């Protein structure tokens, strides 16, 4: 097998929660003596310092980033599973701002934490855009997996959007409630809340296309004016009636799916 397509589900407690992130993996002829080559399907969006909008993945285990000998690819020891687990745990983490070179030392400082919160706001917006793009044009042979995933998680995603617009910090909303809310209250910027409001409608439209019911109850009753223009490609409001009553799809195992632990 020379090629593999993997999808990682964003973990709870991160700005990537409930998202699907696709990676194409190529195994060179001298694998496993050298690491595989991994390409991230970014859809033109850079939602992490280690995941470039051109698909490049920066990871020590892939020998595409600096690191100690133990962090580099070790022939006969390192595996593709380790690569995918590292992407999920080390890259798609709760505070991706600190992945940026030189920023890790700012963790725990007032300035660093404030910038991390802002980065998480931006990241969640990009994650929502990725969800919309993925539902509109899922990777080939993953159509049913994409549909089934978002069918089952639509209400959780919309509930988190609503909570964030009401002031819950990005990543702190989990199924069944809110976790670890700070005593000093709402830290989300007005810009973030307004921009997120602008993306909820196209998100609802895509959920309704695959048969998800009762999405409108998550819509904010108070309109907010986005400060950042919504891309034209996301402004479609057309619903295909034939999809509204589609049954819940059966999830298929497609090559490799890594879910959050």
UniProtKB/TrEMBL annotation:
Residues 1-132 form the UBC core domain. It comes from the Eukaryota. SMART domains: UBCc. The keyword Ribonucleoprotein does not apply. InterPro entries: UBC, UBQ-conjugating_enzyme/RWD. Keywords: Transferase, Ubl conjugation pathway. It holds the Pfam family UQ_con. One of its GO terms (molecular function) is ubiquitin conjugating enzyme activity. This is Putative ubiquitin-conjugating enzyme E2 25-like protein.
């Amino acid at each position: 097998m020379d090629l593999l397509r993997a999808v990682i589900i964003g973990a709870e407690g991160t700005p990537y929660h409930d998202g699907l992130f696709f990676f194409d993996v190529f195994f060179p002829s001298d694998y496993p003596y050298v690491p595989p080559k991994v390409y991230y399907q970014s859809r033109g969006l850079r939602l992490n310092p280690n995941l470039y909008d051109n698909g490049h993945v920066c990871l020590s285990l892939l020998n595409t980033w600096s690191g100690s000998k133990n962090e580099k690819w070790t022939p006969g020891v390192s595996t593709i599973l380790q690569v995918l687990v590292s992407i999920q745990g080390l890259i798609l983490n709760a505070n991706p701002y600190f992945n940026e070179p030189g920023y890790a030392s700012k963790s725990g400082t007032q300035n660093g934490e404030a910038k991390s919160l802002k980065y998480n706001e931006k990241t969640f917006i990009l994650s929502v855009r990725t969800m919309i793009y993925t539902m509109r044009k899922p990777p080939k042979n993953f159509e049913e997996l994409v549909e089934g995933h978002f069918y089952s998680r639509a209400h959780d995603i919309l509930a988190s959007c609503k909570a964030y617009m009401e002031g819950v910090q990005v990543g702190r909303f989990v199924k069944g409630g809110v976790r670890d809310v700070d005593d000093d209250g709402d830290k989300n910027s007005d810009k973030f809340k307004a921009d997120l409001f602008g993306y909820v409608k196209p998100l609802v439209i895509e959920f309704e296309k695959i048969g998800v019911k009762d999405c409108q109850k998550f819509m904010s009753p108070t309109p907010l004016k986005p400060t950042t223009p919504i891309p034209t490609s996301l402004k479609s409001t057309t619903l295909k009636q034939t999809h509204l009553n589609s049954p819940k799809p059966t999830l298929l195992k497609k090559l490799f799916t890594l879910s959050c632990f």
